[in-house]
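Hello,

I think I submitted the FE2/S2 (inorganic) cluster job twice by accident. Can you confirm which output corresponds to this input? Input:
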Amino acid sequence: MSTDVSQNLITISVDGKEIKAVPGELVIEAAEKAGVFIPRFCYHNRLPQVGMCRMCLVEVKGPRGFALQPSCYLPVSDGMEVITESDKVKKAQDGVLELLLINHPLDCPTCDKGGECPLQDQTLTYGPGESRFAEEKRHWEKPIAISDLVFLDRERCIQCDRCTRFADVIAGDALIEFIGRGDHTEINVFPDRPFSSYFSGNTVQICPVGALTASPYRFKARPWDLSQVESSCTTCSMGCRIMVQSSQNELTRYLGLDSDSINHGWLCDKGRFGFEAVNSSDRVTVPLIRKNGSFTETTWASALSLIASKVSSAKAAGDPNRIGFLLGSRLTNEDIYAWVKLAKGVVASDSVDCQLGDGLSGKVISVLPRATINQAASAKAILAFTGDIREEIPVLFLRLREAIKSGKTKLATIGTHASSLDQLSDVSVKVSPDQLQLLARELMQESSKFPDIASLFTTQGVASDGDGLVVLLGRENLAWDRSVAEAFAVELSRALPKAKFLITIRSSNFAGGVDLGAVPGLLPGRTPIEDASLKLRQKWVNLPGRAGYGAAEMLKSALRGEVDVLFLVGSDPRQDYVDSVLANSALDQVGFVVSVDTYLSQSSSMADLILPASSFAEKSGTTTNLEGRVLTLNQKVTPRGLSRPDWTIASEIALELGEDLGFTSAADVLDEIAEVSPLHWGLSWHRLTRSAALEGVVIPISPTSLSIRPNAMLDQVSTPGIASVWNQGLASSKTSFLENDSEGDIEQVAEAPSQATRGLGESIWPLAPIQLLGFMNLVYTPKLYSHGEHLKNSPHLSHLAVEAKCRISGRTANDLGFETGDSVRVADKAGGEGLFELEIDDSVRDGTVELTRGSFAISGFSPVRIGETVNYVKVERA
Amino acid sequence: MSFFTPENLGKAQVLVGLYPDKRSALIPLCHLAQGQHGHLSNEAMVEIAELLGIQPAEVMGTASFYDMLHTEEVGKYLVGVCTNVACMLGGGLELLEHASDVLGIPPGATTDDGMFTLEEVECVAHCDKAPCAQVNYRYFGPLADSDFDRLVDDLRSDRLSETVPPHGVLSRVFRDAPAMVPLEIIHQERRDMDEAKKARLAAQNQDAGGKQ
Ligand code: SF4
Ligand code: SF4
Ligand code: FES
Ligand code: FES
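Support: Only one job matched these inputs. Its output is below.
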């Protein structure tokens, strides 16, 4: 949102005070900005207004004198006179509240909303204090489960339409509705159609009463038991801003913070309810060493010295690249930097990777011009060649959906399978790998083989050099090698140099990993290893002699017995690597596997040594989201057991190896990052935690203007749980977020630094056109609840985990003689086989097999084989 | 799809095609489904939702708003006795009580044989024949107790099938939709009207200016 002062402001008077307002703004908003709070229930700044509850009535002067009008439904106009406090207004507020309370039960003592309830608060402040209603109240069965996560108590509902508006307008899942009329009105779902939306938790967050509650928080705490800190969700790469709340050193709830650039206050359910994994009983809390096939506890000291001796002897043997580091998405920027410094700057190994075959090459990511989320949401047109955003980065889907529905931007999708973006797109083209290069080259030419896209973009005003276009680039199909998408993007960027890219990879801190050199060949700041800066050489004792291995090569060399020590830092290749057959057999061949992890994952349980790492909310630091925005993560609870933050572990190992990384706090690490990486210039813990830094900063920060957006004022009725903890919660919850320190709202710069454009290689990736008898095209995609330790350890989410499914079209099923529910054997080219339940789905293209990434790896079977550009499978009757 | 009969499905598709926004056909489709089945079953609502590309909850939300759309099963004859002012003065409350006695059910209930549902209704604009009742939305009045008994008798023995349609059929007259006027023409007409209005105002202003 622009705060451009040159806008024509108009003047209105509120309670006799002249205030400036933006034309089109609502009276309730203009008054709030001027410090006059008008009570409200149905109004929510991120939802379209409905003017339903009448709590916001104010007197507005019209041709016939002052009259009551709903201030949430009335745009300001020049010279308007508004009175918010008068006998007439007071009487209206009394009346509205008395009416609302007629049917509202006296549940406060047992209601989860008690203490943070806008109805309670506003009744106390504005209400009549007494009711004339002596009759029987309305009764409903209470509460009813409308989904696995959400409970509804209809007696408490005040029919503000927030939940239903959110579900319909924002999420596009109109699964809850007003049923009936008058005093029979209730919110409910259709019989046997539960409210199973990925976004259901948001309705609980915005319900102004205790009608909607979420099972993980029911009867857990009161606001005065809670303390809170701001942080960011690290479940995917969106980096939604959250308020982390805890009671007695245990996490109790996340609430979405309203960030204009990121999540608009929304969260997905996986992000919102996944916090319980931190409390999981499967946490690793002490260092564990494998002895005779099973784990026994050991001390940090002996674990560290064992690691040092393994690393030293591996190093002495020659090639340091035989010491590998796989860094997972859990890591903060500080963790990544410390581990990269340990790997590249101490051990001199360049075999570091932060992705597990489901991402894109760091080099390609760093050369593509970056778009921010807001730029994507306001682009003239969007081209999507990405996995299903709704399944992978859910809140980004909400942002894009809103932009497209508003008609501001138009979308074209290309790919192999139907995705939720298709429902929003104007053009959607199905492609095969060999068409992609051509498509990239001729995208804006109406004479191309894809004239629909070209004409859509031209009508939208996208320039022939791509100006105005934002490309969403991810892994549309995991069964195609990442090189397919990379080649497409590089070609497209050549053809349309002004087009910007938003990299839509799900894994949370991939951008931080790429920016900080957790990919082979690069140093922090996306600098090639050959070009280490003077600053870096001063800070680092060592540098890799030559380029090391990425995840794929690392695992392949491991298979050949060429990896001596492998560090899995929050990385679980057995579960997460796309080619699980390779990952499984490779890990067995590694000399010594060290797992630094929070849980006993599939990989850590096979390691030689496990070091317990602190989890989310147990450490502070920063993370970088998919648009390159650096966001703060704050500690809320103490680390479990003997676990330590990952950056500390790297420092300790370095010390054992005789080197001091030089860090005593996460802030030190950030300072060094800002010093050695041109990309991170100007960052400091102090700047990021300044009260105004709610949204973090997009890097690189331009040297002349540090850009930090001031905090939006928090409406205590929009997200009831936050302001109340601030007001009545424990003292430690008083972070400075509510204070509006508007130090500068300066233009943000999101261009990639010019130095990073080098390295745009000439290589055209080879695409083998393969036609193999009996084999079908494979589409392999994840779902939101596909897999992972995080999901498994979140008690309220784990049962949502999806099973691996095999889907083919009706026609293909007919040809093969299959029916829905058949059990089929899917065979890959390398001879691996997996058993699946077949589902017929006509959104699948004929001759194609779609496999959903499921919750469990099937041993001996991996639909994706690294090294194959395109993967094919056979489907046979089991 | 399995709720609509092939014939009604055809009609439904025509109805859906009539509107630029499919959702606009929601109420017409509810009428169609209720005409076929007497009430809107869950199955019917799911199918309507599919035809319109919306959620069943949205169909339910709309259908449950209107008293003349029934989401619960009702008897073959829906008897509504009016107790609003005119009828009340003419004995509507007594008529309702009598109806309740004769049918053996309180207002809101359905007889065991599924023949009658009794309702108390507000003014149905038949005040000149107070006290009145409606059966499947066809009017009868003024009704003395004995008239009501005869009415029930006639209904039971099917003597009124000409006048009273099966429940759910709100209209027995089906007309073809008029030919669609292309949107362009509508827009053009609007523009023309706007132009004309502008010209008129300009002329008026000029007049006023001239007089000054
Ligand atoms: S359940 Fe809550 S959010 Fe939904 S309408 Fe009722 S009061 Fe509003
Ligand atoms: S979209 Fe991603 S970052 Fe946002 S709440 Fe969901 S998982 Fe967390
Ligand atoms: S009517 Fe304005 S807040 Fe509800
Ligand atoms: S009062 Fe009964 S029909 Fe009007």
